[in-house]
Amino acid sequence: MKIGVIGCGYVGLSTGVLWAVLGHDVVFLDEDERQIATLRQGEVPFYERGLQEVLARYRARTTYACGWSEWDADVDVAIIAVGTPAQPDGSPNLSYLQAAVQAVGDHWQAGRGTVVLLKSTLPPGTNALVHRWLQERLQFRGLSDQVTVVSNPEFLREGDALTDVFYPQRIIVGVQSRAGESLLRDLYRPLLTGPDTAPAVLQRPPGYTRPELFVTTPINAELIKYAANAFLAMKISFMNEFANLAERMGADILDIATGIGMDSRIGPQFLQAGVGWGGSCFGKDAAAILHTAEEQGVQLSLVQATVEANDRQRQIVLEKLHRHVPALQGAVIGVLGLSFKPGTEDVRDAPSQTIVRALRAAGAQVQAYDPMAMRTFAEANPDLAVAYTAQAADCFAGADAVLLLTEWPVFAELPWADLRAHMRGDLLLDGRNAWQGLSLSQHGYVYEGMGRGKIG
């Protein structure tokens, strides 16, 4: 088949490269000239593990269109993976989606039967809206083609997007027609029944079993995506609230998480207490579904509480710091980790943004290191005066305290005794519970974790 992908962000590129690996011809379209120029040079304009190598290997099956004048309308499937940024009221901005749909309609080949596949995370009811937009555009052009619009939400983790593309746990297809369902089954058949097709750069997850392709209605598929992200965010916020209680009562949240995670109904994933969640999905999607619920006159109290608990957790980190360093004016604070999680350069809604901004507002000097996200953090916060260091050890120089905000592996083992001698203070505030407090105290540090009332 010939497949077009509209939007060259991490969802669009990660999804599109799957089809190239499976033998299809793929054309990627984006209106960002610099983005397309970078891709044509064989580079990816952001970090996603393994993506650049796989795109390079399958270059013969991929082309890049800079704007709609270069779009190849002779495609079997048009995948829309454009951004839907949050608006002030929490609702997603659908203007990029509408523009893409209208452009698809303007370049529609009569009788071609192109299927439009929605990968962008979209509020419930958007599939029907896209169908209407496209049908109206074709009617305006005097075309009588019946259009098929399929909702096929992505469930990708930044940093592990290719693993999730080639080894999905489930494939959700929201469709109203047999033709759309049949085409999606044909597309995904290699992942459902065939031999392992993943590139060598990826490792098959231990115990992996083939996914189920679950066919449902478009509005169900749209709600599945929002419900999944809201539930995962809620698990983290739930553990953070219990971490605060455990700490007050002298308990250790790590043991508590281990104990409840042994229950197969709960499982061990997303039970890691810390400074809170961030990134491009959880916060934006929670705001969007809360807005939808409000429009429908429905209360999503648990989702609202999830967001509030997450915001509060960032303030708790600052409160912990204040207890040890009461006067932040002129204090030197080292920050290890700026991305919202390891394995990515993404700082969108990262806890580091809230915390570093609060530290600077209080008059503290901030010296920060991240193995991948210092450039993106600086670009996202051009008004923040931060000293970006060449290595993690430099964050300790003259510091009154050092905060761990992202648990990069490089931070796991540091020359603790040597670094302690270079600090002015003695506090290590472990916002991810990644360090062992007992061993650190032996080197003269005061260790503060999250929810770790007793760690001995």
From TrEMBL:
Catalytic activity reads: UDP-alpha-D-glucose + 2 NAD(+) + H2O = UDP-alpha-D-glucuronate + 2 NADH + 3 H(+)
Membrane-traversing stretches: none
Q: Which residues bind substrate?
A: 155-158, 225, 270-274, 278, 341
What positions constitute the catalytic site? 281
**A single GO molecular function term of this UniProt record:** UDP-glucose 6-dehydrogenase activity
Keywords of this protein's UniProt record, alphabetized? Answer: NAD, Oxidoreductase
UniProt binding sites for NAD(+): 30, 84, 121, 158, 284, 348
Q: Name one GO biological process term.
A: polysaccharide biosynthetic process
EC no. given is 1.1.1.22
Q: Is NAD one of the keywords?
A: yes
Q: Which residues form the UDP-glucose/GDP-mannose dehydrogenase C-terminal domain?
A: 334-437
Q: Quick one: which pathway?
A: Nucleotide-sugar biosynthesis; UDP-alpha-D-glucuronate biosynthesis; UDP-alpha-D-glucuronate from UDP-alpha-D-glucose: step 1/1
Q: Which domain of life is it from?
A: Bacteria
What InterPro entries has UniProt attached to this entry?
6-PGluconate_DH-like_C_sf, NAD(P)-bd_dom_sf, UDP-Glc/GDP-Man, UDP-Glc/GDP-Man_DH_C, UDP-Glc/GDP-Man_DH_C_sf, UDP-Glc/GDP-Man_DH_dimer, UDP-Glc/GDP-Man_DH_N, UDPglc_DH_bac
The record's annotation in Pfam families points to: UDPG_MGDP_dh, UDPG_MGDP_dh_C, UDPG_MGDP_dh_N
Family the entry assigns: Belongs to the UDP-glucose/GDP-mannose dehydrogenase family.
Q: Which PANTHER family match?
A: UDP-GLUCOSE 6-DEHYDROGENASE TUAD
Task: Write the protein's name.
Answer: UDP-glucose 6-dehydrogenase
**Per the UniProt entry, what species is this protein from, by scientific name?**
Tumebacillus permanentifrigoris
